[in-house]
Amino acid sequence: MDREYLTLEHIEKSFGGNRALKDVSFSVKKGTVHVLAGENGAGKSTVLKILCGNYHADSGEIYLEGNKIVAANPRQAQDLGIAMVYQELTLVSELTVEENLFLSIEPKNKFGLIDRKEVRKRIFALMDEYDIHINPKAIAGRLSVAEQQMAEILKVLLKNPQIIILDEPTSSLQSEEVVKLFNIVRNLVKKEKTIIFISHRMEEVFEIGDYVTVFKDGTFVGTRKISEIDVDELIKMMVGRPLTQIYPKKSEMVEDTVLLEVKNLKSEKLNDVSFQLHKGEILGIAGLQGHGQTELLDAISGVHKLTQGTIKVNGKEAKIKNAKQALDNGIALVPCDRKNEGLMLILPIQQNLALCSLDKRSKAGFINLKEEQKFAEETRKSLKIKLHNLNDPVSSLSGGNQQKIVLGKELGTDPKIMLFNDPTRGIDVEAKSDFYNIMRKQATEGIGVVLCSSDMMEIIGMSDRVLVMYEGRITGELQKDELSEELIMKKSMGIVEEVAESDK
Ligand code: ADP
Ligand code: MG
């Protein structure tokens, strides 16, 4: 068999009874960016940890330039030219960047010491070569996540690897930091290095990848050339069905009962907003970022100050000046910034879930822990939250599962109206699909849902009706059968169609 640069054949790996990799084979070409994609838990990290000597495969072979290789540990992988930047950063936070880098280097001279001057020179040369700007004297723990990652990359580059593995390097980066990282990746490829890059963000796969290999449930689905595949096909490979089937069926008919009515809402960011939300309806709110959507949801949930306007719940005027009063009126908000607004990351999952509905499970000021656990367990099941233990901190969960905790916490209050602000941003397709099903199920059961989203496909796929916002106003209302990306886009930019028509 004509083996390529790097080939993995028939790799099997189990953890206890869990088969994490089932007969996985794929190849990587030299000097390319090879993306590994697939849902959380698909086995991407595991296969690469085997490649770099962190885990041992139960069976299977790895070939590098046609020769069978065995890396019993990361050190041996390194000697073979394979290095990995892990998903979890590994710097010693009390030490400086430079000290961290020294630590990772084997002593060279006969006294078992590192030639610091020499290493320093190499560090500067590398920073220069790859356009990496961090202060080597900075304490690692004080650096931003992006800077720590750069230090990790430097650490790996110091060992002059030929194959560099990056495990979800962008998951905690801002967009401008991603640009920088991609520049480094491109520079590495120019130097004939081979990059294996784990990501499940579509835009990224297409921007940086030359090839993509998809994993699903521990099996190899396929490898494609990026230039020969489109988003739809890739998603289909990842989740086993096309995007259009990710959205649940819409309501046949929405009831007339008005659950929520807002009238003439005005604030710093809102300019006379009025609308009604019906029982069982999913009302989408579209618009470009920063046109008042977040403020609108925040105003209805009592955290954005209105200067004017009324909010009616079930036909009665409601006084909603804070989050507690919103909850008392049966209004729950799933915010977009789960890390800052939605969760106490270091607290256990169970406690986070119970956070909003403490009164329900307390008696005479004491929390009924049994009840709390029961609720957490039920929520885990109904929302399909993937976790090891309810007592683990929320920070141990993936983004999608963290967001499910936010949702579960809000559902615990038995809301009548649910407001979602960009709920699926940055979470994987499988979790998205779960979210959509839950949202629709809630609506079917009679809850009114307002869904604000920056994802146009999501708005079109989920909404029974859509309002478009522009500069704090509602500039359009579209019914289910009128929803199109073009129309929403136009209204989002304040373009009134009549003008375009009469121009002719
Ligand atoms: P991915 O990187 O694609 O999200 P992983 O390779 O991390 O997926 O995980 C694949 C499967 O193996 C999951 O079911 C995960 O729970 C399991 N797994 C990974 N590492 C370990 C480990 N050290 N111990 C037990 N199970 C593990
Ligand atoms: Mg992983």
From TrEMBL:
The keyword Nucleotide-binding applies. Keywords: ATP-binding, Nucleotide-binding, Repeat, Transport. Pfam families: ABC_tran. It comes from the Bacteria. One of its GO terms (molecular function) is ATP binding. Gene3D superfamilies: P-loop containing nucleotide triphosphate hydrolases. Residues 6-242, 254-496 form the ABC transporter domain. This is Sugar ABC transporter ATP-binding protein.
